[in-house]
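lol ok so funny story. i was supposed to be doing the assay writeup but got distracted and ended up predicting the structure for this chain instead. priorities right. anyway since i did it might as well share w the group, maybe its usefull for someone
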Amino acid sequence: MGQAPSTEDRPSDGDEALARAPSGSQTLFRGLDVLDVVADGPIGLPELAQRLELTRSTTHRLAAALVERRYLTFVPREGYSLGPKLLELGYEARQQIDVARVARPFLEKLAARSEDTVHLGVLDADSALYLDKIPGRRRVQIGSRVGDRHPLTSTGLGKALILEQGDESLARFFAAESTGRRRKETLQSWLGRMREYAKLGHAFDLEENEDQIRCVAAPVRGVDGRIIAAISVSSAAQYMDGARMAVLANDVQQIARDISIELGWTAPPRAAEPKPAKKAARPTVPVKKPVGGKKPARG
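and the output, tada:
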């Protein structure tokens, strides 16, 4: 007769339940269960395994992987606690949720004023993630949806998100998005445009991402002044000549500024307009007294 498995290695009810789940999701479910339990407070391996109804070896394997990825931390004689990676993700999630909620009424205002499609997006790794979209009133189809990811170097919104990055980072984005596609301009030409956009505080998409579609975009800043999102107005090229794009640039920048202030950013004081030079005072000409004490004749 074979030897019965020890209590340590015998499958628990939790192991058996997960064994019945689709194989691709087993590890994910188990890892999420570990996080849920550890969220209650620091916990040692024996108690963690008991709470999860898993064997110690399975629990240790899951916890060790989460420690390696910084989702958990481990301190001897104290056990497992939530790790710094969760703080980072929580901060990013809060930023995204807050930005979308706070920006919505301002986006609606911009959409009503421009009658064109308005987007809100954030930087997500090496792409622009669209958090919100308000379709325009014109009969123009803009190929985007909330949740879509779009290029950084050819969209107006993407350029606004990386407006203050250094040349090295910009070159990396440009090279990554140039693979397998023909670019109409060189890296140096594109970098020159980005430097100019950075000075102006806005960015354009001149039919670079989608044929016959142009866009004006501006960055949104967080409490610390860093760019955390961007907004844009997009429409058909026939509605976006140079003069209108210049006007929209002011409108988009103002709305982006309003959103930033609502998020806690302190706007720097606007530069005072130079006062017109004062007219030079006329020199006083002394009146000569007439000879003999007579008063001068009035003209």
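Residues 20-82 form a domain with the Arc Repressor Mutant, subunit A fold (CATH 1.10.10.10). DSSP finds nine helices and eight strands in the chain.
back to the writeup now i swear
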